[in-house]
Amino acid sequence: MNKIFGHLYKEVIKPGLCTGCGACIASCQFNALNLASCEPKLVGKCEDCNLCYYECPQTGDSAKLVEYVSGQASPDPDIGVYGKAFSVKTKDPKIRKKCQDGGAVTSMLTWLLKKDFIDGAVVTGFEGESWKPKPKVALTPDEITQCAGTKYTPSPILLGLRDAVDLYLKKRVAIVGTPCQINAVRRMQFGDRAFHHLADSVKLVIGLFCMESFYYEKLKNFVKRKLKIPIENVSKFDIKKGNFVVYSKQGSKREVDVKALKNCVNTSCSVCLDFACELADISVGAVGSPLGRSTVLVRTKVGAEAFKVARNNPKLGVKSLNSVKPGIGLVKRLSRRKKNSAKKLLKRWGKYGKPIPHWMKEKSES
Ligand SMILES: Cc1cc2nc3c(=O)[nH]c(=O)nc-3n(C[C@H](O)[C@H](O)[C@H](O)COP(=O)(O)OP(=O)(O)OC[C@H]3O[C@@H](n4cnc5c(N)ncnc54)[C@H](O)[C@@H]3O)c2cc1C
Ligand code: SF4
Ligand code: SF4
Ligand code: SF4
Fold first, then answer.
1. How confident is the model at residue 349, as a pLDDT?
2. Element (H, E) at 177
3. Using a 6 Å cutoff on CB, does residue 180 contact ligand 4?
4. What average pLDDT does the chain have?
5. How many helices, marked H, and strands, marked E, lie in the chain?
6. Were both Cys, which of 22, 164, 263, 282 would link to 137 (CB 3.0–4.6 Å)?
7. What integer is the mean pLDDT of 53-81?
8. Based on the domain organization, do 260 and 270 belong to the same domain?
9. Residue 120 in contact with residue 139, Cβ under 8 Å?
10. Does residue 109 fall inside a structural domain?
């Protein structure tokens, strides 16, 4: 039986497992779906084509996708397939001012655009001063740099990909996202119901390490009520050494144990098995490198080609990850911890009769 939006609603959206990636909306050729309060909603007539269900990262196992991406069936059990690992820091003052860690993502993208390796990038900025994530199609290095920095709430990046293809007619796009978002990109490329109309224009997939993200409204209220900072006054959010850190535009810094935000965490994150973005061409995160640098894992052939071009950027300082502390061991440990905790919770959900998709049940038993 083919499944349609009704099944997506029942299996993913209603139980709170939607990651807000936008893949279902972007793949609906009948414009029947829209994003309402960060969740997809039926706003037109569903023509039962079933694409939305099968592009969703929450409706199937990713084991087959791993094979397609890496061409290798036995990845590292903790962090997936990778070839080389680096620790990277930009020396470009404009990027340093805006970036989250070492500015690896922004530096790579700006250089790849200058060298015509890509013809555009789907990145995430925000609406006005609100910190509400908004996917953007960046066509110049300045537009890419404007979107540097982490927004800890979900961004519907697949809507950005739709704009890059349908509005800007781009053919060699780089796309940046968290593991759940990148899973949707890979489903469009290699899934059982691949959506070539968008996927064929993706040239490079850059994934971010991700432990969790927060519901936008809950985060906004937390920052205002507990930390006494209106979200419009925030200049940067960060999570370092177990603390959630908020920098204000006035120069103050407030930090709390990240556990204090447990009620703000997206439900889907507590059962998410991917920390290191195992399906990306290149994964980037803070963990593994010293403060102010980014860890870069090069995973695929196209990832290696892109990094070979990007590291020629004279403003990019590149070291082997082996030469810095804490190194790859910490990435593996955190990733293992995330997988184990998600599996435990899935088991508990199953025991208490909470409806969870079949493939997730199987994962919790493996
Ligand atoms: C929700 C979330 C949770 C994360 N958790 C961890 C973690 O636990 N451990 C860890 O080591 N790293 C984590 N990261 C990654 C980390 O915060 C940095 O993004 C990463 O180290 C790259 O830093 P950079 O300086 O190289 O990137 P920059 O040069 O600053 O570029 C960051 C890029 O990320 C994109 N981006 C920002 N927010 C989002 C978003 N919500 N969705 C999609 N794209 C986005 C921007 O458009 C930009 O292109 C997380 C990122 C996100 C978005
Ligand atoms: S028309 Fe197809 S893609 Fe659109 S909502 Fe219906 S099943 Fe989903
Ligand atoms: S996870 Fe993505 S594809 Fe699935 S329902 Fe949510 S927005 Fe749609
Ligand atoms: S923890 Fe998983 S589900 Fe949550 S934002 Fe990160 S990748 Fe997506």
1. 85
2. strand 173-177
3. yes
4. 94
5. 14, 13
6. 164
7. 85
8. no
9. yes
10. yes
Note the ligand closest to the C-alpha atom of 291. 1
Query: Residue 102: CB within 6 Å of ligand 1?
Result: yes
**pLDDT tens by residue, 239-275:** 999 999 999 999 999 999 999 999 999 999 999 999 9
Among 90-94, 194-198, 343-347, the range scoring the smallest mean pLDDT is 343-347
Position 249 scores a pLDDT of 95
What is the domain-level CATH number for residue 232?
3.10.450.750
Ligand 2 centroid to Cα of residue 41, in Å, is: 11
Q: What are phi and psi of 274, to 5 degrees?
A: -115, 115
Q: Is the CB of 157 under 6 A from ligand 1?
A: yes
The answer on 114 and 125 residing in a single domain is yes
Q: Express each pLDDT in 30-56 by its tens digit.
A: 999 999 878 999 999 999 999 999 999
CB of 269 sitting under 6 A from ligand 4: yes
157 plus 249 within the same structural domain:
no
The mean pLDDT value for 149-168 works out to 98
Rounded Cα distance between 106 and 249, Å, is: 22
58 lies in a domain? no
How far away, in angstroms, is 27 Cα from ligand 2 center?
8
- 72 within a domain of the structure (yes/no): no
pLDDT at 363: 65
Asked whether the predicted pLDDT for residue 341 surpasses 80, the reply is: yes
- Probe target for ligand 3 pocket from 10, 11, 12, 59, with the most ligand atoms within 8 Å of CB: 12
pLDDT value at residue 162: 98
Ligand closest to CA 123: 1
Are 306 and 333 in the same domain? yes
- In the reported structure, the alpha carbon of residue 147 is separated from the centroid of ligand 1 by a whole-number distance in angstroms of 11
Task: Indicate if 165 and 232 belong to the same structural domain.
Answer: no
Domain boundary among 236, 264, 292: 264
Residue 50: nearest ligand to its CA? 2
Amino acid letter, residue 68 = Y
CATH number of the CATH domain containing 300: 3.40.640
In a domain, 150, yes or no: yes
Q: What are phi and psi of 177, to 5 degrees?
A: -165, 175
Q: Tell me 229's DSSP state.
A: -
My answer on whether 194 and 223 are in the same domain is no
Cα separation, 189 vs 207, in Å, equals: 15
Residue 160: which of 307, 35, 62 has the closest Cα? 35
Cβ of 244 below 6 Å from ligand 1:
no
Number of domains in the chain: 2
| Domain range for 123 | 80-213+266-338
Q: At what angle do helices 301-310 and 104-114 cross, to 10 degrees?
A: 80
Shared domain for 168 and 102, answered yes or no, is yes
